[in-house]
Amino acid sequence: MIALNRYPRVALLWSGDAEARKNATAENSKFRAIFETFAQYQVHAEPAVYYDACVDEVRQQLQGVDGVLVWVDPLQGGTNRTILDNLLREVAAQGVFVSTHPDIILKMGTKEVLFHTQNISWGGDIALYPTKEDFHQHFPARLATGASRVLKQYRGNGGMGIWRVELLNAMTSQGSDPIVRVLHALRNSREQQMPLSAFMTQCDAYFVGSGSIIDQPFFSPVPDGMVRCYLSQNEVVGFGHQYVTALLWPESGQETIAPQPRLYYPESQPEFQVIKRKMESEWLPQFQQILAVETEALPMLWDADFLFGPKTSAGEETYILCEINVSSVHPFPDSAVLKLVQNVVTRLKHHRS
């Protein structure tokens, strides 16, 4: 519990190395605006650069703060968050406020959330393959319709483990092995053509441990692009808009089309008010009920990506959820900073009381 005779202390934790940890300051951090806003609220915020080899040093640091905000990708440089997540669970059990708590990430921030929430109006025809045997048995039939499918591994970032798959020739019989064209969403990938069986075998690596694969229809970002809705807990705090290109078929033999820059807007931006209203009053309450996530447990900063779906018969827009980002939401619109800090301050006051 926070001592009543001192200012609250919050650590901002992000990935780095020994040199970055040694030299990190509020002034040279990419989170400078957050540090400055915490200071306005008389909260002492400090950098906590993390890498696995310094886990004991970071543990000692986090045991001396009241809360920690975390920005670390689930997969990065061949490593994952296993050691860090164990540390965060440990300090949370000791009374430190952690956002986002690893257990909430497992509920909200994996691709399986698309399957579990498919009955919300942002969902649709989504399958979950919990094992490689299930994948090999059922995916060919879903692909046989002829439309592009998008496969997503259980956890990832930066397009890792996200594939667009489409038949090049029809399946002639059950058990046939047609040629498929595939495209990895990872930057600088090239379209490939291979037998379906070879592609599925290549995907077996995604089932290691507790892995799984999500299968959903491909929706083109052309011409409207993708809308990223930023939230602090249950309040929309801004938007990003980008013409994503990662899964668009490139010209023959060429790399994927370079992505366009994401443009950022405040929560009041007129063209995104339908998404804001739906998120706050419709989608999020259903989402919380399905996943059993209380409002106070929602991340202090998270986002949801939407593509535009087919319009209704009345001409209204529909939206398709592509993914939810919880582990490391950065960059973000300037409009997110104040509400993020205010929500953390409120949480720490409750912790104090």
Task: Give an overview of the whole structure.
- With 353 residues, this protein is an alpha+beta fold.
- It folds into 3 domains: 9-100 and 340-352, Rossmann fold; 108-122 and 221-333, D-amino Acid Aminotransferase, Chain A, domain 1 (2-Layer Sandwich); 127-217, no CATH class.
- Helices cover 29% and strands 25% of the residues.
- It is built from 10 helices and 17 strands.
- It has helices spanning 18-23, 32-40, 55-62, 82-93, 102-108, 112-116, 132-143, 196-203, 273-291, 335-352; strands at 9-15, 44-50, 67-71, 75-76, 79-80, 97-99, 127-129, 149-153, 162-167, 179-184, 192-195, 213-217, 226-232, 235-242, 263-265, 302-308, 319-325.
- Strands 7-12-8-9-10-11 form a 6-stranded antiparallel sheet.
- The protein starts with 8 loop residues before the first strand and ends with a helix.
Structure summarized in a few sentences:
The protein has 353 residues and is an alpha+beta fold. The protein contains 10 helices and 17 strands. Helix 2 crosses helix 10 and helix 7 (132-143) packs antiparallel against helix 8.
Chart the SSEs and their pairings.
Elements: E1 9-15, H1 18-23, H2 32-40, E2 44-50, H3 55-62, E3 67-71, E4 75-76, E5 79-80, H4 82-93, E6 97-99, H5 102-108, H6 112-116, E7 127-129, H7 132-143, E8 149-153, E9 162-167, E10 179-184, E11 192-195, H8 196-203, E12 213-217, E13 226-232, E14 235-242, E15 263-265, H9 273-291, E16 302-308, E17 319-325, H10 335-352
